[in-house]
Amino acid sequence: MVGNAAGPGYLQPTQEEERVQVARILSKNLIPLGKLHRSALVVLKEFPRFDRNALSELLAEGFSLLPSLPHTQHDLSRFASFDDYKEAKNRNGRRRIERHLKASTNPGVAPIQLEVRDSGEGAIDEIYELYEKTFERASMSFERLTPEYFREIGRRMPDRARFFFWRQNGKIIAASLCLIEGDTLLTEYLGLDYTVANDLKLYFRVHYDTIDWAIKNGFKSLVSTPLGYEPKLYLGHELLPVDLYVAQTFSSSMNSFFKWMASKIDPTVNDPVLERFPNFRELRTESKKE
């Protein structure tokens, strides 16, 4: 697997000519490297659409292109404040935001404070307990992380990692791990205390507070992970297509059959909510070089 285990992969160079050169090197060497390590498959994991033209170099070497389960994106570049974000919604949208926030700000509800840090130290056990509760409730999920993951990502990437904590009466009732990529804030992992989450509309409070913090700190977009598409559609996200490049390492004579087989396991066809996003068709927009 080539890419980022915790999110989308990226080609590092910014100049298109250099990006094509990197893709060409990958296309010539990945399958031989896979054979050397006795791997049946070589996969480039979740590369964004803007890498497609450069990575089309892989297609001539036997790789198949598949849409992966898309991330979602919220454009924040138009907003100077959360009030701007709210006012940009239609009347029903503004009412929904007010209703969601009212659940956690009503008189009689203990105040909720947001704390943002570059490390989870001192709160790893609480973070992980909430993460596990959310992980276990998911109908579909990926790898289960460990407490060490949350501890080490703060130690190794303090410039990129941001831990969001929501406390009520001193107790953490929600936690989110985000990563920074330029002027984009990527929301990666979420944990909620489900004894209060529904009453406080905590999922939405987390989302709005994150948007508020991102705008105040100069971020231009918010990117969220795959799955959980229903509330993201409801909140105004668009799909952010990401691609898989997959090749078998047995024999070049099997490429045609493998391309046909790969086309039958498109993961995006099994979630009907995806079709309701306004830019759903972009998931299958073909590369210029295919």
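Above is the first protein from milestone M3; the second protein from the same milestone is given next.
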Amino acid sequence: MTPTERFQSARDLLLRHRTDLAAARAAFRWPELETFNWATDWFDVIARGNTRPALQLVHDDGAGTVKVVRRSFEELRLRSSHLARHFVKRGVARGDRVLLMVPNVEALWVAMLACIRTGAVMVPDTLVKLLQL
């Protein structure tokens, strides 16, 4: 069984028992995964060629203008892969910390997926602000 299949099997078990916590606890076992990257082993598998919406951001400027940004799974896969390659070219490696100083816009979600792909640790700016309190 591939890492993707093991992950999916564990996820499906939890979904089957989502209304029965005791049954979920009794049946669930963490999948044994020698290596697993959520972005490449899970997200890419469901995203490849998938034009369904994966991200929808609604921004209201407060003056009555609403802007909606929608991206498909495939668009996020392609954009985050591109950014991950850029990160690697710039020297970002597994375990490096990447500070994300981005509001809730498309770039935040692309950057998070790119960090996961490279194995970099994402540090959201909001967390930095909380730690400074």
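Note on the second protein: The chain has one domain: 37-131.
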